[in-house]
Write a structure and sequence with these properties.
With about 475 residues, the protein is mainly α. A two-stranded antiparallel sheet has the order 1-2. Helix 1 packs parallel to helix 3, helix 1 crosses helix 12 and helix 7 packs antiparallel against helix 13. The two termini are about 20 Å apart.
């Protein structure tokens, strides 16, 4: 992909486009923190000592510091875990479409604020009952889906092609750092202050923060102050950087002002290739993010503080890998080491298949603390390779319709995540002997089939139906 050379020495890391990716990094961190803090608190929220339906067990105190305990069966826990995906699924396509026609600044800012407020209300929802908890999580999913999908449209205007993967990887890597920070401090807060405090930020004794509700509200303010929909409108950007960004994207199709070519999209095999691996990717990461604390508890029987540390450690390595992946992909492209299609296929294959391999090692070969942690780290860290592959492939295929198509493919991925959560909860409640092995085998089969389809049909050039009508004539 050709771009105009930078007109002089264009600012690199100390530039507004990189500053924007860092701001998005923290917004994504807040979103995924709000989503994942329930995964560990569920261990102490649920009364596992009594069978479902036992009298007087629906909401009683374990002790004065742990917080209320609820009689939620494994099936109900699976429903609550997956409830956020109901909202995520419903919001993907509308958010993707709206991102191309309304202000991204307003859309992302308002939905991030809504998600943050709902995080603050989660303890009250749990107290109100299962239905309120499911409704709260589903509504939060609607808001988070809009944040996660609408933000992709801004890279059509802000990301020069040779910096595209690294800028996107910096922003998206916040999704990986969030679970690490939350799980790191959640165990400490649950153990000393009770699980409800996890959904707030600072307690009166100034204990460590959980990056959830209030941090998201602060980030909303920063977003509204610092972000502009188009680089040419930013009052603080240098003329040199504006010229570089606008010039490098001059021949790229912009936001869609033509009718969506729905029929061509539905029959596009390269687009379906991205959708299929998105399904597999979300199936895998949802399984690890949601059920790692329970797996650690079942396998190692450690206390809450150690559980939080062990469950969160893999995401630290995943975060590092995600940032490095963006750098590696753009270096390979800018130095003409590999063609862009080869880069997309390479990183997609590594990001989908390696977690399956290490996941099987986790349930079949790990026999103690060190081996369990090693396989957890490797399985999570290698999934970040997908950022250099299928996660940005839509932008190669159809920059004109990027927001809408990112919403569609993410919708398909979210369906995979929802099914993964529900199926895992079902297997755990029905199979007392080898539930984790069956869960990982299903994941590995899905991933293998998805990668095979992607390798056959993936493309990395702008498709005919995504070009200007004059260009196609």
């Amino acid at each position: 992909m050709e771009t105009q050379p930078p007109p002089g020495k264009v600012p690199g890391l100390c530039s507004l486009r990189y500053g924007l990716s860092i701001l998005l990094h923290f917004c994504n961190l807040a979103v995924t923190a709000q989503r994942s803090c329930l995964n560990l608190t569920m261990v102490v929220m649920v009364n596992s000592s009594q069978p479902p339906g036992a009298p007087n067990s629906s909401a009683r105190l374990r002790d004065s510091t742990q917080g209320p305990v609820y009689d939620w069966s494994p099936d109900m826990q699976g429903v609550i875990f997956s409830a956020i995906f109901y909202g995520l699924v419903l919001s993907q396509v509308p958010a993707g479409y709206l991102s191309g026609i309304v202000s991204i600044k307003k859309l992302v800012g308002s939905t991030l604020l809504l998600s943050s407020v709902l995080s603050l209300l989660t303890p009250l929802a749990a107290k109100a009952g299962e239905a309120a908890m499911i409704l709260c999580r589903a509504t939060q999913g609607l808001a988070q889906g809009a944040v996660l999908t609408a933000q992709h449209e801004l890279w059509v205007r802000w990301a020069p092609p040779l910096e595209r993967t690294r800028l996107i990887s910096i922003g998206m890597s916040g999704l990986l750092l969030g679970p690490f920070l939350v799980l790191l401090v959640t165990g400490v807060i649950c153990d000393s202050l009770g699980w409800p405090m996890v959904f707030y930020v600072f307690d009166l004794q100034l204990r460590p923060p959980a990056l959830t509700g209030a941090c998201g509200c602060v980030l909303c303010l920063l977003w509204c102050l610092l972000f502009y929909d188009h680089p040419k409108d930013h009052p603080c950007m240098s003329a040199l950087e504006k010229q570089y960004i606008v010039g490098s994207l001059a021949q790229q199709a912009g936001s869609c002002k033509q009718p969506l070519p729905i029929r061509a999209m539905l029959t596009s095999l390269p687009l379906w290739a991205v959708a299929v691996v998105s399904f597999a990717f979300f199936w895998t990461i949802t399984l690890f993010i949601t059920y790692t604390p329970k797996f650690v508890d079942d396998s190692l029987h450690v206390d809450m503080r150690k559980n939080g540390l062990l469950s969160g450690l893999p995401y630290l390595f995943s975060w590092v890998t995600g940032i490095l992946t963006g750098q590696m992909a753009d270096v390979l492209l800018s130095r003409d080491i590999f063609k862009i299609l080869t880069i997309r296929k390479l990183f997609t294959t590594l990001g989908i298949l390696l977690p399956s391999v290490f996941g099987l090692g986790l349930v079949c070969l790990s026999a103690g603390l060190y081996s369990t942690v090693t396989f957890l780290v490797l399985a999570n860290a290698t999934s970040s390779f997908s950022i250099g592959g299928m996660m940005v492939n839509i932008l190669d295929l159809a920059p004109r319709y990027y927001g809408f198509l990112k919403g569609v493919t993410t919708l398909i991925g979210m369906v995979g995540g929802m099914l993964s959560s529900l199926l895992t909860g079902f297997i755990l409640s029905r199979d007392p002997e080898s539930p984790w092995l069956k869960t990982v085998l299903v994941m590995a089969g899905i991933n293998l089939a998805a990668v095979a389809f992607y390798l056959v049909f993936a493309k990395a050039d702008i498709q005919d139906w995504a070009k200007d009508r004059q260009t196609r004539l």
